[in-house]
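Researcher: Please translate sequence to structure tokens.
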Amino acid sequence: MGKTSKTVGSPTKSSSSSNQSAPPQSLASYYLARPSNRYILCSSSGRESIYTVDQDKPQVQCISVQDKRVVSVGSLAELQRPLEWSQPRPFGLDWVLQPVHKAVHAYRAPKIKFIDDDSIVVPGLADAHAHILENGFKMQLQLDGSKSVDEIINRTKDYLLSHPDVLNDPTRWIEGMGWDQTKWLEAKFPVAADLDKDTLLRGRFIALRRVDGHATWVSPAALRLMGDLPSEVEGGEIIRNEMGEPTGVFLDNAISLIPIPAWTEDRMAEYFETTMAQALSYGLTSVHDADSSPEMIAFFKKQADADKIPMHLYLMGNVLSDTYWGDQIPRLLNYGKAGRLTVRSIKLFTDGALGSWGAALLQPYSDKPETKGILRSSPEALSKLVKQFYKDGWQVNIHCIGDRANEVVLDIFEDIIDGANVNVNVTEWRPRIEHSQIMTTQDLKRVGRLGVISSVQPTHATSDMWYAETRLGPERIKGAYAYQTLLNASMHGVLPLGSDFPVEGVNPLLGFYAAVSRLSVDGSSPHGEKGWYTNEALNRNQTLKGMTLDAAFASFSENDRGSLVPGKLADFVVLDRNIMAVPLTEVLNAKVTATVIEGKVVYGTL
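Model: Translation complete:
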């Protein structure tokens, strides 16, 4: 197709119009449908408390569900109206058949359920960027909120004492995640020797991931296990002291040098079950996993075969290699007994993270002028990979934090999309930049003009805001976490939202609050109670759409999910208060009373 096909209408409008009119139901199917498969869910007292994320009917009183799908939306009176008697009348027997039809309708009338007065219904929530198994991994030894190295040591000791199987086996690695040196008094990286201060930990193999996963801190025993280390690592860094000795912190690609044992299938199953239970309790019905290795994909595929996937999963395959690896991962569309597993995209990394000075910048860091960050792949190698994945029909999703990383990737996408020798339907390809965190003014416009999807995480803004301006300075910060600008520039009018859990919390309402308020959960920011750069805040409707329909668009599923319109899957969430209207502080107190996937309650009760 030619380049003129790049421009499309809003996915909200196009998806609702394509699904608004469900095929007419025949009398035969109406008579044969089982009553147990049909119900109507309504707001109380005639309110329109069901938010559909549909332009034509943004709020309705009721939705009607049959089997897995939404049948109709509207008022209770509209949904209770009997099926019109419009079939051919055999032999003029209306006087016999019409009463029979009315009697059958009365018998088959679906059960009507009402939500509480203060409650609302929203489409099933999606996380457009997360790490499913890593979240379960993190649950074993959580280091979030630690205010010092000593607190990290104490938490690690507590973990060891509460896990006798690890305590009594000196060959077992101790692993955890969540430390953040920016929260400590000295705000500098820890060292391996810190983990030998306590006699209980001394001599143990310990590997503790930073909160963003882009740095790992190891113990002296783990360091000795690695032997001689290279002086340089392409796309990574081994932190060294003044004498050139490794201190025990490894960044980005250098992390692969640490000989941490691979996860067993049993461990992956434990991590998976932990995360799925947590996600369902927070109203998530769909998750985009942003870094799925071939081993992880094989695990997810096995779960799908056994019908053990409780929600829609969209996996981004990843192999850390500059050599084409598209043949190492399977293509799966709606795979498994329930059809809930899809693998049609890949994930590449351009740079590291801002918190560890690994984000690739065009100019030096304001607080560390000796570095501009890390490019994990050369622009040439990355370009070759992206073009091969595009040629082979993969959606390409690329991690970009710094302005240099975003510029490199947009140059590559632009070369493909606007290239003289290729005709690209960008709506069919849907390339994504994961994070789009720091961009130049020109690139904030270019990403939208090209039709590239920016997938962002609002809680990153409120977590990073305490040090981001120190890292970037007063000018570059204006192009950082620029969510309203990105949405306004988007060719498709979309801005899919995620959390990057376990980097941030799993609860999507934390992201909802952060996107709208630009405040920490305690109501503070570097700019006070008004919020941090609130000109880039999203409104509530934009935010809800970002975590429903926009996320669906980013995973090619907007015709099946993301809004509550006839014909789409009946994925929805009941919340105990109206997050679209209550004071923002109340949003954080909202609880999920029911999570429904394909018409069935998978958490809570209706």
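Researcher: Any highlights?
Model: The chain has a mean pLDDT of 91.
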